[in-house]
User: What shape does this take?
Amino acid sequence: MPSAGATLRLAEIDPLTGIANRRAAMSALDRSLVTHREEGRSTALLLFDIDDFKGVNDRHGHPAGDKVLRRIAELAQRQARLGDCVARIGGEEFLWIRPDCDEDCAQDAAERLRWAVEAGTALAPMPGVTISVGWAVQQAQDTSLTLLARADAALYAAKREGRNRVRAAA
Assistant: This one.
């Protein structure tokens, strides 16, 4: 029987990708916002999802879709710094928490990630995909939910503008 600590860790890991799940990510975001607000530093939140993921599953089957999800998680983890949190928060949607990251840092990270996914899946033995990224940097009044909502609005702006794009929150 697994220990309580092992059970908790399993409850915070996405079983398909091996990265944090929504529960763990929201907890990490709450901690980061409180810590950085107290220290006068900022946290950036990047929200991204796979463009036309339904098409990948429809054309290539769900096993190929699962392979794509695992590859995206791996590519995002490679972009992350020690202390960052990359998580799958549902379906084909992911987030990346970057403590100590301002607007320039967030924009650069988002573009680097977008490019890494495009290049990193184009030559892999799986369907090539792209991602759209929306990002927001913590403002004084932000809670984890308002920061997430601002990053989400930016993600949808990237989708509306043609996908495979990065957009900052307003």
